[in-house]
Amino acid sequence: MSGPALLLAGFAVAGSAGEASALLAALTAASALGGPLLGVRLDRAGRPGRLLAVALALYAAGLLGVLLALDRLPLPPVLLLAAAAGLLGPALSGGWTAQLPRVAPGDRLARANALDAMTYGVAALAGPALAGAVAVAFGPGPAVLVAAGLIAVALPAAWTLPARTDTRHDRPAVRTELVAGFRVLTKRPALARATVVSLGSSAGQGMLAACLPLLGEAALGGASRGPLLLACTAVAALLANAALARRPDLLAPDAAVRVGALLQAAALALAATAHPLLLVAAAALAGLGEGPQLTGLFAVRHREAPDHLRSQIFTTGASLKITAFALGTALAGPLATRSAPVTLALAATLTAATALLPSPARAGPPRQEPAPDRASQTPCHSRPLPALAGVRLASAGRAPPGCSARGRPAAGCGRTSATGRRTPSRTRA
Fold first, then answer.
1. Where residue 182 sits, what CATH number does that domain have?
2. CA 50: distance to chain centroid?
């Protein structure tokens, strides 16, 4: 909600779509830069929830600062203020999700992971709609205030998140941990593959977003109707993740990431026809791919990321996806003005190509997870997930361990569901 609300506020004050877009671009581009550093700080904090609460509070204050500065300062200082707030943007997504194992440990993580992914769908559906409704009823300024208020509602839940029980006092320098985090992202085959596939999908989504006004104008009776297809996509993604929440073992995480990308590629190819009914079908198909893909991606990150680098992996992954989406939008802009179908065909090819990349061979011995610390397995409680939904709403705009070196399940290695839960293997010892 914060992105669309800020966009509307910028347009209302400046009267220029270009200046309003620049304001939103400053907010989102800075998020891509701030993710890795914020993740490192969360991983090093003894009480990551309190640092997360501070980051959320500063982000909300930044939104209010931008709103106050819009009609008082020239555009360049306002853009700098938006960029400063945007540095903390990953706290609203990856920063929260990385803390999930602390409030839903063990068997609870599978369902909680699917519910977490559902909050993204709820936010994508309700956030822009709420921003528009408040802006129409009360003005764009109050829409920004509501976005900041929704973030503030989550502050108590963030502040009371469980403390880290494995705090190390001899941690290396921040730069060293940044390098270590990127090494984990690139050197662990399953995590690297899931990241690459998700980036291809994000770029394709950005290219589709650039084509939506043209598709609306050509097939739906008006350019403003094109973005309404995103609501159909969000509903389909929400329903798909609801099914996964009920049946966490329905689809393995790595398969969910790849199958989700292929479904999105098929949706992009279908949208290239620019037929009204096929456009609606394409939007629904894209949602059926996006929802399970996000659930699977989170499960792979939870499974592969070392605990002391988990927050960095999540916030860096969120930053990379934001960058891929922005690059896709920038690439599609000039292409779509020449031919939207060709642009969508290119997006479908890119998305499918990343999903069909050959599986990398596992390098070195399989990673052994440390024994769980029972002291850190805090009972699941109900406060973080509702608060998480509020944060998502405010921010909306838009081989397993224990297996052999060759990737085959070793004796006793169970299958992993789309949300990270393992089911017992039938392999005899």
1. 1.20.1250.20
2. 22
